[in-house]
């Protein structure tokens, strides 16, 4: 029998719990029907990019809710931190459901089923992302997991939440900045705020674990981290071109992705890696 004690001296965990709770929301608070008129004004290419961006985001949130947070939580010894991870996992489920909330309003069910049951599973860039991410998460299966693997799982989690989501976030925010699809944009902004705090909390937790690694393990972890970052970015570059080339905004999206890649590194206690350039200020 164990029992969490929230009456111990306050630290960052208490603050992150309160912040997560204060941000709680559910998708039914947003009436996506307000976006129907705007949706009908979008070109076929714009609609295609929008729905595929959201479908890809659904896949990432599903993996984070079902694999990432639960497995990180499994080996977290501080019961208050475990509670924070548990709450964040629940919010990932709300994020995943919110995309279906948008699809239900805008698309026929047959098209939603195709996007989420077929396209996401078969799209090679998404498969590459999920394979890379889940491989590090699944090292935490079982009763024993090394500090090294626990650390790298958190690195992977930060990359997912502070880096990989943003090629998908870009387009709904871009449209909302033009006064289009504004309710969908509000949902994405809510999700973005959640992912931001998730990345900061997990990054700080990762930094604490890194202090438990030996010097040789730190060197190995850093090499693995930068290789993972590069591999994911190259895939993200190709995925972004696939999604956005027809709209002529690929370069701006990639600048946004690089900016958030540097934020992910900052959450983990590292200096920027990518050269940063200006991107659409609506983000």
Automatic annotation (TrEMBL):
<dbReference type="InterPro" id="IPR000358">
    <property type="entry name" value="RNR_small_fam"/>
</dbReference>
<keyword id="KW-0479">Metal-binding</keyword>
<comment type="similarity">
    <text>Belongs to the ribonucleoside diphosphate reductase small chain family.</text>
</comment>
<keyword id="KW-0560">Oxidoreductase</keyword>
<dbReference type="GO" id="GO:0005971">
    <property type="term" value="C:ribonucleoside-diphosphate reductase complex"/>
</dbReference>
<dbReference type="GO" id="GO:0046872">
    <property type="term" value="F:metal ion binding"/>
</dbReference>
<dbReference type="InterPro" id="IPR026494">
    <property type="entry name" value="RNR_NrdF-like"/>
</dbReference>
<keyword id="KW-0215">Deoxyribonucleotide synthesis</keyword>
<protein>
    <recommendedName>
        <fullName>ribonucleoside-diphosphate reductase</fullName>
        <ecNumber>1.17.4.1</ecNumber>
    </recommendedName>
</protein>
<dbReference type="GO" id="GO:0004748">
    <property type="term" value="F:ribonucleoside-diphosphate reductase activity, thioredoxin disulfide as acceptor"/>
</dbReference>
<dbReference type="InterPro" id="IPR012348">
    <property type="entry name" value="RNR-like"/>
</dbReference>
<dbReference type="Pfam" id="PF00268">
    <property type="entry name" value="Ribonuc_red_sm"/>
</dbReference>
<comment type="subunit">
    <text>Tetramer of two alpha and two beta subunits.</text>
</comment>
<dbReference type="InterPro" id="IPR009078">
    <property type="entry name" value="Ferritin-like_SF"/>
</dbReference>
<dbReference type="InterPro" id="IPR033909">
    <property type="entry name" value="RNR_small"/>
</dbReference>
<dbReference type="GO" id="GO:0009263">
    <property type="term" value="P:deoxyribonucleotide biosynthetic process"/>
</dbReference>
<keyword id="KW-0408">Iron</keyword>
């Amino acid at each position: 029998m164990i029992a969490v004690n929230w009456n111990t001296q306050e630290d960052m965990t208490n603050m992150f719990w309160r912040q997560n709770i204060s941000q709680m929301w559910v998708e039914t608070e947003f009436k996506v029907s307000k976006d129907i008129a705007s949706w009908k004004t979008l070109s076929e290419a714009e609609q295609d990019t929008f729905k595929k961006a959201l479908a890809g985001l659904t896949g990432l949130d599903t993996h984070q809710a079902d694999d990432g947070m639960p497995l990180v939580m499994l080996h977290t010894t501080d019961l208050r931190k475990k509670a924070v991870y548990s709450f964040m996992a629940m919010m990932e489920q709300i994020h995943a459901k919110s995309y279906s909330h948008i699809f239900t309003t805008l698309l026929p069910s047959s098209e939603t089923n195709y996007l989420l049951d077929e396209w996401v599973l078969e799209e090679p860039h998404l498969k590459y992302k999920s394979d890379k991410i889940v491989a590090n998460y699944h090292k935490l299966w079982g009763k024993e997991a090394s500090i090294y693997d626990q650390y790298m799982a958190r690195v992977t989690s930060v990359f997912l939440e502070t880096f990989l989501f943003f090629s998908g976030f870009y387009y709904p925010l871009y449209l909302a900045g033009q006064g289009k699809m504004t309710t969908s944009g509000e949902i994405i902004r809510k999700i973005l705020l959640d992912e931001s705090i998730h990345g900061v909390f997990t990054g700080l937790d990762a930094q604490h674990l890194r202090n438990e690694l030996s010097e040789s393990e730190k060197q190995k972890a850093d090499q693995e981290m930068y290789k993972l970052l590069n591999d994911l970015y190259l895939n993200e570059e190709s995925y972004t071109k696939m999604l956005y080339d027809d709209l002529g905004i690929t370069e701006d999206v990639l600048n946004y992705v690089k900016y958030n890649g540097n934020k992910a590194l900052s959450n983990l206690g590292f200096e920027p890696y990518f050269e940063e350039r200006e991107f659409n200020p609506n983000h």
